[in-house]
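User: what does the whole thing look like in 3D?
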Amino acid sequence: GENVEQHPSTLSVQEGDSAVIKCTYSDSASNYFPWYKQELGKRPQLIIDIRSNVGEKKDQRIAVTLNKTAKHFSLHITETQPEDSAVYFCAAPAGGTSYGKLTFGQGTILTVHP
Amino acid sequence: KAGVTQTPRYLIKTRGQQVTLSCSPISGHRSVSWYQQTPGQGLQFLFEYFSETQRNKGNFPGRFSGRQFSNSRSEMNVSTLELGDSALYLCASSLGVRETYEQYFGPGTRLTVT
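Assistant: Here's the predicted 3D structure for the full assembly of 228 residues, as structure tokens:
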């Protein structure tokens, strides 16, 4: 089955800095990679996703890049703000195409200091 | 559109009891996936239902089961509860058909087993 590794487990930055979280996956058939943000006591929220026919996708201050050859994808947050502090999870569909069955990374606790 | 809802939000049960959790997906969504979230194991997939049929299954014991109704609402049941079943149980809904991969999570049910 799919295996997703996420690094780092914790990330601390100053407000205004950039933050980068990286994930690797094992199944070369995977073609959809979402990122979720989970604030304390809240539900995971889909913030951005990328499909394998695209190398990069941006949405305001967040972007995701995908390298299918190396089987890794990354979340980039620019001009971080305190409200970006949360746990971020990457995911990939198990078995490559079982879209209802996501395998998640272990999560990254992002802390943005004012 | 209303988001994904889950009931109850909190439950306290005793070892050996059974519990039923409910999930109402976003209107028009036919796929419901269930996940268990714990501090140690992160987000783990339980099962996915689509059009009243289990489409994917995770690596959980048979004590965990689910079903889906014709209106796409889903329930999951855990029998013979163990202390290790204490967790946040999240459901996520999606359209469930090819090329529509996005999953949206409910607020979760916090289950405590004593």
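In plain terms: The first strand of chain A starts at residue 4 and ends at 7. Chain A has a mean pLDDT of 94.
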